[in-house]
Amino acid sequence: MRHCALLLVLGLLCGVLAFFALSPGRGWWLPDAASTIAQPIDALFDGIGLVILLGFVLVMALLAWAVWRGARARTDRARSTHGHTGLELTWTAGVGAILVGIALAQLPTWARLRDPAEMPASGVTARVIAHQWAWRFEHPGADGVLGTADDVETASELVLPAGESVLLELRSRDVIHSFFVPELRVKQDVVPGRAIPLWFTMARAGEFELVCAELCGLGHYVMAGRVRALPRADYDAWLAARIIDARSRGAEDAR
Amino acid sequence: MSSERRGFLRTWVVSTDHKVVGIQYLVASAAMLFFGGLLALAIRWQLAWPWTEMPIVGGLVLGESGRVLSPAGYTALFTMHGTAMVFFAIIPLLTGAFGNYLVPLLVGAPDMAFPRLNAASFWIFAASIVLFFAGFGVEGGAANSGWTAYPPLATVPAAAPGSGAGQTWWLVAITVLGVSTILNALNAVVTIVKMRAPGLTWMRLPLTAWGLLVAAALQLSALPVLTAAGLLQLADRLLGTAFYTPAGLYVNAVQPDVAAGGSPLLWQHLFWFYSHPAVYVMVLPAMGFVSDILSVNARKPVFGYKPMVAAIGAIAGLGLLVWGHHMFTSGLGFEMGRAFMLSTMLIALPSAVKTFNWIATIWGGRIRLTAAMCFALGFVALFVIGGLSGLWLAATPVDVYLHDTYLVVAHFHYIVFGGTVLAVFAALHHWWPKITGRALSETLGRWHFLGTFVALNCVFLPMHQLGIAGMIRRTADPSVYQLFDRLEPLNRFVTWSAFGLMGWQLLFVANVVWSFLGGVRVGRNPWEAASLEWETPSPPAHGNFDSDLVIERGPYEYGDAAGERDFAPQARRTAPREA
User: Fold this and answer.
1) Cβ distance B455 to B387 under 8 Å?
2) Quick one: pLDDT at residue B9?
3) How far apart are the CA of B367 and the nearest CA of chain A, in angstroms?
4) Helix and strand tally (H, E) in chain B?
5) What CA–CA distance (Å, rounded) separates B58 from B45?
6) In chain A, which residues have pLDDT < 50?
7) C-alpha dihedral over B463, B469, B470, B475, to 10 degrees?
8) Smallest Cα–Cα separation from B143: which of B237, B253, B58?
9) How high is the ipTM of this complex?
10) A46 → chain B, closest CA residue
11) Beta carbons of A196 and A186 less than 8 angstroms apart
12) A193 contacts in chain B (CB < 8 Å)
């Protein structure tokens, strides 16, 4: 029977190792990164992943060995040890040091993500408005101020300049949603009644899926959007064309 | 104790005997576990083959009309799965079933401190189950804003079909259940503090008793917060208050007719203030069972008893300070995120200490691979996976990416299923002879363990990959996104495994039937265990102990120093008591 136990532990070990080894090649892993913050986040993910893997292998090996040896010897009595202070202190301190190390290692990245001191001073690039079950976006026009005649509105697709820091203002009209772009590694809940800032830098031009990550009702699963990153010149041209559209529409409304 | 034969009603229904109450809890929460499992299968069906006709389970759970899920039906499904499992199955299995059955036996008491209150807490629990099911039958269907019931989705009827009458029933059920659980926890704490047999000092309590005591203390300190928060949400719905619903909403382009001006994040704080410690309520007693079962079957004392007790205390203490990690992406402030990150990292420490102590407990032991032992070892292996994956989620920047993905689902199912449910099976195998007087089949039990262990890893391990690839929770159809569409083979594999896992549980049912029909009758102490409950007849009569006890030592005296046998019972039985 101890063979069976050993097989189980080995099977679980192999399963976990195969899980780590095979998934990236099949696209069952972190999607290709597209923001500057993704690099330190992925590095943290990998580093903690290594701790997880080593910790798991260590514990499984000890467990398997203890069961393998212990299930064989039946005649003798076990030694009645009640503990060992030195051992207790060693593993408490060891694990504690690793945990404190992880805690310290992630502080700078958390600050880049959320410390108000890191917020770009350049003003809001776009306002994101979430509602059941779609996304709407407002860019301030040439005046850089939201709520004026030259604002540019888009639905479903958020267009942003690549290679520079952008600042979004997240608002919801109804329930809580969450602004999640897997390739950017950013996620921020959108809470009704609040305007929540979110900033990041797109590392490359391209189109990325925008996912609503917070349950927002029966249409939660279809609340998809898109983020399109353009080089600065293309972005300026895109925005200028829309501003003219918005102005002429405003002029028509005035008439 | 009395030899007079009582009728079925007096024995099994209106009894105040803690053992009967425990068995009542066991039957009711096992039924809820099965129901929650059926809901899980329906969820898995939808994720593997979205919007297709669901065989068997669909008709069972959703009625004839519900064979093909609707988007609203799907949201109700996972809401009620989470609610049924956390509040109505796992917690009552631990603190209700095993808590009530074991606490007086472990401390050498004839019954709980307040037997009638104990019976009342079960019947209030039963009432809350009725209220829970009543929600399915109302207009709009059952609650469907998640087991977390975040406002304003939960508080604005126009926002979701289940946020009408269904949510009201849900809140009433949760609040009534909260009252039942608080009463039950009070009973456990008073019994362990005040009714320990003479000589049973704190440092002679088995770790199962410590786990149950601290879990009950956690419930007493945090559950009133959730119960009160639930009452406030009820007031928002029924009395026109506005604790949680913010102002200025437009739902379906109209301003909803609800009082507004509240804070949705207030609910999140209050909800997680209990519902995070609830995880420790679901795992501390399980850790206790496992400690005891490992020690008995390794024929060795628990290694580092005092550090184990300290770890239970540390987990509970820190457990009250980590709720904010559910809110890292909610708009919680930068400094708050840092503080909750630190407390969350620290809580991994006592869990790691316990794991090393379990390994040291069986290290050099004379291991009996009983079915109970297999499940207990399985607990240790899988609890470690659940604990380690928590490191990713504790690190705030990584959590920002993984939050609300399937990695979170994988993480807590390793703790609650891989951990707690395996510990419950371990405990069932271990204490079944005490509860029924008959043995379960060891062979069937080991086969049941083998298949369960393999299948549950096939279900929950790939969920890590789903989450790492970004797949969000609570999505009814992953194929909507290109990023998640390529995960379809994994999703189907998980679903097939889930059906296997559920089907394999028939072996346990068969084992129970076998035990009742032909299981070997056992004496007082079939496992040669040292703690007090084994001094009673199997099953113990009303009043428990048939002789006075003199407590002489701790509960874990196994091995070469124990005396003439390889264990020294915790108590010496003296003159038999008058019947």
Assistant:
1) no
2) 81
3) 5
4) 21, 2
5) 9
6) none
7) -50
8) B237
9) 0.95
10) B392
11) no
12) 246-248, 263-264
